Amino acid sequence: MARSIKLGVLGSGSGSNMQAILDAIDAGTLNAEIVIVLSDNPDGYILERARRAGIPAGVIDCGGFMSKFPDEKQAEAAQRLKEAGVELVCLAGFMRLVKQPMLDYFPQRILNIHPSLLPAYPGLMAWKQAVKDGATESGCTVHYVDAGMDTGPIIKQVRVPVLADDTSESLHERIQVAEHKLYPEVITNVAIGL
Ligand code: GAR
Known about the structure:
Layout lengths: L4 E7 L4 H12 L4 E8 L5 H8 L4 E3 L11 H13 L4 E4 L10 H4 L4 E5 L11 H7 L4 E8 L9 E8 L6 H25 L2
Parallel strand pairs: 1-2, 1-4, 2-3, 4-5
Antiparallel strand pairs: 5-6, 6-7
Bound molecules: glycinamide ribonucleotide.
The site of glycinamide ribonucleotide has 14 residues, from α1, β5 and α6.
């Protein structure tokens, strides 16, 4: 049987994707352990979910910057992940751009889930961009993280139709259902290769 892999999760919001990873671990379909959760948002519900699951959790304090992820904060976060023994980093709704030096600490070992069929609609609120654009199809993508914005090598995508009466919220809800299946599945497959 494959060994259990140690995951570190970075998030900013509700943490439903982290919950899906935890549920897959509990169900025995993903042989992994989340050893640390970090959030740049002290009020993110992801921290509450981590506490309830008994997972060490902490805040990355970006000192009032709205979207910037300062180099020294990236190094600090990477060190905390390393100290926790993390082998694979999963961005789960993390809204800051991960780049050097984080990438140096975890080369080819940072995954992100994004709510569109990349390369379409990178960046924030991809579901809003899709509805505004009149797209008939969207979806979600899991990819390796590189220094660009949602530009890293794509691992797997799932298509989600945009319905005629979709609002951005209803589309995001259906994309999230797809995300919650896709992310644990991809992590399982990536972990096998580590
Ligand atoms: C998810 O839909 C995720 O794909 C998206 O934020 C949401 C977080 O939800 N990520 C991005 O937009 C990254 N650019 P969650 O906190 O409930 O997992």
